[in-house]
Each structure stands twice: as structure tokens, then as C-alpha cells.
TrEMBL record:
Chain ranges of the ABC transporter domain: 3-230
Keywords for this protein: ATP-binding, Nucleotide-binding, Transport
Signal peptide coordinates: none
Name by which UniProt lists this protein: Sodium ABC transporter ATP-binding protein
């Protein structure tokens, strides 16, 4: 079972919100979709789910388009949360999950399982409007997973959650992946993406600017960060060719360099001056890569 996206584009009026995305996500994979606000993530999700027709290109799950007849195979946590505030959690989930083809006993069993898991069993008969935003999100998440979808699309699942709830949800997402669910999610929090996904795509104004395996992307990414500590003045490093920036920290300096050769050059120069207490090269964080690739479009 594979999610296969081939050359999708979506044009609104005169501009392309999504402009040529192709990717494959294999069964059981966790895939990250990144981009600044307005980059085209939600529009892509809607096309994957068949809620929006692509202007060009195709999306298939297990070789077929996702039409309303196949919605029981997919789960969706939309960015704009869409629960009915006046219904109780139970009424809400009974309504939504029946649309996915589940029976009442199945829904009740799964609902109680998830309410226990999220440590809110007492919410069953509470109205949604009585719950905090974070707890409403747990219910919305349940509405995306109760029917055990094969493909799960999560649009900003961790936004607005406190660290405890965020971890709880992360664990749930990882367990679903372990059970074989294929998951595509978006997040503006790069640490979540680093923690969860193996492969990702980064969008800028609807176009992919990076695509592939996270570890591979980091390894092959030119810019590295070098942390240096020595017993003498290091200001001269700033003027070495290929140095992007230098920041002083409590224990030395952190230098961003164009590539490994520049780091080697710096290493040679400082060892000529005397004893080096620390010289450590780090791969860039996804946050750094995001800022570099998406640049002015990001409001992070
Ligand atoms: N129905 C629509 N009609 C016209 N323009 C739209 C419509 N939906 C989205 N857009 C535009 O398409 C672009 C991409 O929007 P989209 O919501 O997909 O971005 P996003 O990456 O999900 O952003 P965010 O991180 O803010 O959620 C934006 O410029 C948006 O204004």
C-alpha cells in the first residue's frame, strides 16, 4: 500500500497554491510536510483526501483515487478544528464514526479506549464547548483515528498543546505507525519533525525545495555548525573564506561554515595559534535548514 502523488498542482484564481509535487509514502511510514504559512500544505492534504480536485496531477492510495467510497480508509485531523460545540463527546464521535461505517458498539469500545489512553474518561458526556482547546484537540484526534484508518493525515497535530499533551499525542502517533498506519503530517515545530519522521518534503510557495530522507538531507546539507573553544582570541575566524556567521557563546564560538573544507581550514589556522580545547562539527538542525531554504517566507 502506497500513497503516490504525481505532479499535483492547484490553481486558485491566478496563482498556484501547489505547483508540482510528486512523492511516494510507503505503508507504515511517517512522512513530514513542511513549509512556511501559505506554502501549500493544507491544499496538498485536501487533494490527497479527495476533498479538492487537483488542477493537474494525480493522487492514489493503494493504486486508486480516494473518493467518498474510500473515506473509511483515511483519517484526517484538519488544521481548522471542526467539532460541533453543542454535542457531547459521545454524540460527536457516534455521529462522525458512523459516517465512516463503524457500528455503535465498535465506536463505544474504541472511544472508551482512547479516552482512557488520553486520561480523560470523564469527558464522554461533556459538551465539546466545555473542554479546553487542548482537550478538544484530543477529541478531534480521536475522530481521525477511531476507525483505524490505513492512511492518516495530520495537519498541525501538536499546535496549541502543552508539553505533556504534546508528548501524549506523539506517543499515540508513534504507536499507530508501529501498528502499520501510514502517516503524513505537517508541523511548524521542527523538533517534532526531527523526532518523528524519516522522510520529508519542504515546500516554498507550492514548490518542493527539499525532498528525501531526513538523515540524508542533514548529512548532505552543505552548511555545518562548528563549535570551538580555545585559549586565545578567535575573532579572526569571521574573515575566513566560507564562514557565514560567528556567534560568541559562554564557552567559545559557534561558527556556520559553507562546507567541511572550510571547517578544516579553520582547524588548521587555530592549531597554528596554540592549544584547541574544543573543536566539534555538528550537522545542521532542521530548524537551520528550514530558515535557509524557506527564508523570508517563514514567520518562525
Ligand atoms: N480556497 C481557496 N481559495 C483561494 N486561495 C486559497 C484557497 N485555499 C488556499 N488558498 C491559498 O493557497 C495558498 C496555500 O494555502 P495553504 O492553506 O495550503 O497553506 P499552508 O501551507 O497549509 O499554510 P499554513 O501553514 O498557514 O496552514 C495560500 O496562499 C492560500 O491563501
Amino acid at each position: 500500500m502506497t500513497l503516490e502523488i504525481k505532479g499535483i498542482k492547484k490553481k486558485f484564481d491566478h496563482h498556484y497554491a501547489v505547483d508540482g509535487i510528486s512523492l511516494r509514502v510507503e505503508k507504515g511510514e511517517m512522512f513530514g510536510m513542511l513549509g512556511a504559512n501559505g506554502a501549500g500544505k493544507t491544499t496538498s492534504f485536501r487533494m490527497i483526501l479527495g476533498l479538492l480536485d487537483p488542477t493537474e496531477g494525480t493522487v492514489t492510495w493503494d493504486g486508486e483515487r480516494i473518493t467518498y467510497k474510500r473515506t473509511h480508509l483515511v483519517g484526517y485531523l484538519p488544521e481548522e478544528r471542526g467539532l460541533f460545540p453543542k454535542l457531547t463527546v459521545k454524540e460527536q464521535l457516534l455521529y462522525l464514526m458512523r459516517l465512516k461505517g463503524m457500528t455503535k458498539p465498535e465506536i463505544m469500545k474504541e472511544m472508551r479506549h482512547w479516552l482512557e489512553r488520553f486520561q480523560v474518561p470523564e469527558y464522554e458526556n461533556k459538551k465539546v464547548e466545555e473542554l479546553s482547546k487542548g482537550n478538544q484537540q484530543k477529541i478531534q484526534f480521536m475522530a481521525a483515528v477511531l476507525h483505524k484508518p490505513e492512511l492518516l493525515i495530520l495537519d498541525e497535530p501538536f499546535s496549541g498543546l502543552d508539553p505533556v499533551n504534546s508528548d501524549m499525542l506523539k506517543k499515540a502517533v508513534l504507536d499507530l505507525q508501529r501498528e502499520g498506519t501510514t502517516i503524513v503530517f505537517s508541523s511548524h515545530q521542527m523538533s517534532n519533525v526531527e523526532e518523528l519522521c524519516e522522510d520529508l518534503i519542504m515546500l516554498k510557495r507550492g514548490k518542493p525545495v527539499l525532498h528525501g530522507n531526513l538523515r540524508e538531507i542533514k548529512r548532505s546539507y552543505g552548511i555545518k555548525s562548528v563549535s570551538i573553544r580555545a585559549d586565545y582570541e578567535l575573532d579572526f575566524i569571521e574573515s575566513v573564506n566560507g564562514v557565514y556567521s560567528m556567534e560568541k557563546s559562554k564557552h567559545g564560538v559557534v561558527v556556520k561554515v559553507e562546507n567541511e573544507n572550510v571547517a578544516e581550514d579553520i582547524f588548521r589556522k587555530i592549531t597554528e595559534k596554540g592549544f584547541v580545547r574544543k573543536f566539534e562539527m555538528e550537522e545542521p538542525s532542521l530548524h537551520d535548514i528550514f530558515i535557509d531554504k524557506v527564508g523570508g517566507d517563514a514567520d518562525e
